[in-house]
Amino acid sequence: HTIDSSEINGENLLLRPSSYSGVSLLMENSTLHLINSTLFEGIGSSETFYLSRSSRAHFYNTTFSGYGYIDSSTLTTYHLIGLKVLFSDDVAAPGVEYLLSLDNSTFRATALFSGTSPPTDENGTAGPWWIPHITYDDSSLTEHLFTITVNATVDRSWQEERSVNTSFDHIEVFRTSDIRAPAIPSGVEAHPVEGGDEILITWKDNEDDTDLYRVYLVGNTLQLLGESTSASFRDVGVENGTSRTYRVSAVDEEGIESDLSPPVTAIARDYVPPERPSSLWVVGYGGINATLLWSESSSEDVVIYRIFVAMGRRGGGGIEGFLLAGETTDNTFEVFDLLPETEYTLTVLAYDEASNPSLPAPMAYITTPDITWPVVSNLTWKVDLYQVTVEWDTDQVTQGTLHLGTSTENMQEYSEEEYSLHHTIFVDRLAHNATYYFWVYSEEPSGNSVADDNGGNFYTFKTPPFEGYLRIEILSSRDGTFITGAAVRASGRSAQMGLAEISPGVYSGTLEPGPWTISVNADGFVSPSPFDVEVKILKWTNLTLNMTPAGPPLCNLSIRIVDKDGRGIEGASLTFEGMEYTSNEDGWVHLGYVPSNATYTLTVEGEGYNKRSVKVEIPYGEEEVEEKITLKKEGGGSLLWLAVLLIALVGALGAVFYMRSRGKGEAKAKDRPPEEEPEVKSGKV
Question: What pLDDT does residue 496 have?
C-alpha cells in the first residue's frame, strides 16, 4: 500500500499482504486513520509497517504489532522521538490492564509502562503516555529498527491467538527529518576579558538548524549559566583569580539539544598592563652603588616598581638577560654591589594589582669607577679528618686564592674560578697528625687585591693522628663476671701490641686503622681462637668476649627439701660450699652451675625438723641434676615411749585400787546380818 499526500479513514479495515513479504505501507507526507476494529494480518513472522519522512499514523481502538522501517538513503542517524498514547474517558475503568512497550536490542534504551490504569494529569484526565526520545546511529541498518506493541485487555481468559481489541483513543507514531539533534559546538574557547572580573566563551557557529546555544558551568554539578543565539557568551561578575570551566551545547527549533562540548577552563584576571614610567635618571653613584629616580606611571592600579640591572650597554624594549636588583613602592631606589669600572644598563617596570608588568622605562647607563679596595671578613675554616674547608667574605666581587702548607716557606695555591663575594676553597688528602699554615688572598677584576695572613703570623690548624680505638670486655660464660688479669694482644700488618686493662675485665688500646687479629689468654679459662676485627679511623670499636672456665663441664644443680609425705618445706636452710640458701614455697633450692665429676656435701635443716647432712655425687658431663632430701620431725620416738609408760602406770594404779576395794567389802560383809549381801562395785581406770 502506497499512500502519498493523502488522508485515509478506515472502519473495520482488514489489511492483508498480497505476497509473503507482509503488509507494506509506505506513507509520504500522509495521515492514516484506522478506525474501530482495524487489524493487520501478515504472513510469516509478523506484520510489517514502514514509516518514512514526515509521516504520521493514527490508530483508533486498534492493536498494532509490527516492525518499523526508516529510509536511510538520506539520513544516517535515526530518531524515534516518541510514542504518544491518548485515552478516552471510558478507558480508565478499574480492572483494565495496560502494557505499553518499545523494545529492540539495537536501541539505547527500552521504555516500559504497565499498570491497571493510565496516568492522569492534574485534573484527573487520562493520558497521555510518552515513550522517551531514543536515538540510534548506524547507517548500515535499513530496517527492523524498532518494534511497537500496545495491548490492553479486560479479561485475559478470552484472548485468542491474536489480540483484536484495545481501549485506546489512538496511538500516534511520528518521525520527521528535522528531529535529529544539532551538531555539538566545536572550537570552544574561554578567555579572560580585558579589565578582569569577566570571562568570554566563544565557539564556531553551527551550519545546521541550530536555534540557540546553552552555556554550562562545570563544578560539583552542571549549572546552566545562560543561552545565546550567537557564537559567544560572557560570564560576568567573576572574581579575579577564579578558575572557571565551561561546556556548550546546541539546541534546534524542535527543542532538541546536542551533547555537551569538551570542557574549557579560564581564569578571570586583568591582563591590561599599566603605563610605563616615562623617564629614568641616575641621580648619584659612588663606587659600587647607584641611586635611581623615575617618573611615576600614569596608571592608577600600580602597586609596585621593580628595578632591573644588566652588565654592559643594552638596547631594545625588553629585559631579557637583566637581573632583578630590588623593588619599591616609591619612585627612587639605590642599587648596591655593582662591580667597579663596569658599565651597567638599568631600567624600571611598573606592576599592577594583577601583576601585569608595564613596558620598561627608558634605559639608564652608568660606568662605575674603581675607588675601593676589597676587604676580607668572616674568615673560618673547618677540619674534617684529613681535609679542610676555608671560607671568607669580601665586600667586593673578587677571585679568592688559598695559600696552604706544612711550613711557611713552602705553600701551595688553590684558586677559585669565578668572582664572588663569598669564597669557599676545599682541600683534601692532607697529611695526618700534621700542623698546617695558611693565608687567603682576594683580587677584584680591576686588579685591586687584599691579603689576610693574620698579621704575618699565618693561620694554623692540626690534622688528627691516623689511629683508631679498640675496647674489649671479657666475661666468664659461667656467671657473667669480668675476667681480670687476661693477656690480650693485637696483631696488625706489621706490628703487635698488648691491650691494657683499664678497669676490671675491660681492655683497651689505640691502634692504626685497619684489620687486626686479637688473641686472649686467661688463667682458669679456655682460650678462644684468634679472631679478626676492623679498627676504624678515630672511632671506637667495642667488643664483648665470653670465655669458658677450664675444667670439667658444668652441671645445673637443684635440691628439693620435703617432709616424710613428699611435701616441699618452705624456708628450710641449705648450706653448700660455705654458702647458705633458703628453699622456696615448693621446697626448691637452685644452686646454679657447679663442676661435674664431683661429690658435694650439703647440710639441710628446718624449723621443727631434724638436721641432716647429705652427699650428692655428680657424674662427669652431667648437665642437670635434681636431688630430693627428706627431713623428719624432731622428738617423735621419745613421745611414743612416754605414752606407753603412762598407760602402764595407769593400769597399775587401777589394779591396786581394785584390790583395796575388794578387801574392804569382805570385811563389811562379816558385820552385816547373813540375809543381806553387801553390794560390791568395781571398775577400771
Answer: 82
For residue 671, give the H/E element and its range.
helix 636-671
Residue-level pLDDT at 220: 86
CB atoms under 10 Å from CB of 646, counted, come to 10
Using CA atoms of 488, 489, 492, 496 in order, give the dihedral in degrees to the nearest 10: 150
Question: In angstroms, what CA-CA distances link 333 with 294, 302, 365, 402, 669?
Answer: 9, 17, 15, 37, 161
Give the model's pLDDT for residue 451: 93
> And the C-alpha cell for 660?
583395796
Give dist(CA 155, CA 356) in Å, integer: 81
Q: Identify the segments of the chain with pLDDT beneath 50.
A: 1-2, 11-118, 126-179, 664-673
- Write the pLDDT tens digit of every residue in 381-391: 999 888 999 99
Q: Could you read off the pLDDT of 426-438 as tens digits, one per residue?
A: 999 999 899 999 9
List the end-to-end C-alpha distance of the chain, in Å, as a whole number. 149
What domains can be seen in the chain, in order of their start residue?
2-179 (no CATH), 189-267 (2.60.40.10), 280-367 (2.60.40.10), 376-462 (2.60.40.10), 468-549 (2.60.40.1120), 554-630 (2.60.40.1120), 641-685 (no CATH)
Encode 525-579 in three state secondary structure.
EECCCCEEEEECCCCEEEEEEEEEECCCCEEEEEEEEECCCCCECCCCEEEECCE
The model carries a pTM of: 0.30
Q: Which residues pair with 682 in a beta bridge?
A: none
Handedness of CA 388, 393, 398, 403 (dihedral sign): negative
The angle subtended at Cα 478 by Cα 474 and Cα 482, nearest 5°, is 30
Q: What are phi and psi of 18, to 5 degrees?
A: -95, -5
Q: Contact at 8 Å (CB) between 303 and 329?
A: yes
Residue 6 grid cell: 493523502
Separation in Å, CA 113 to CA 110, 119, 122: 10, 10, 19
DSSP 353-421: TT--B-PPPPPEEEE--------EEEEEEEEETTEEEEEEEEEEEEEEEEEEESSSSS-EEEE-SS-EE
Contact in structure between 398 and 444 (CB atoms under 8 Å): yes
Helical (H) or strand (E) element with 7: strand 7-11
Given this model, what pLDDT does residue 44 score? Answer: 33
**Cell numbers at 19, concatenated:** 505476497
CB 213 within 8 A of CB 185: yes
**Residues shown for the chain:** 685
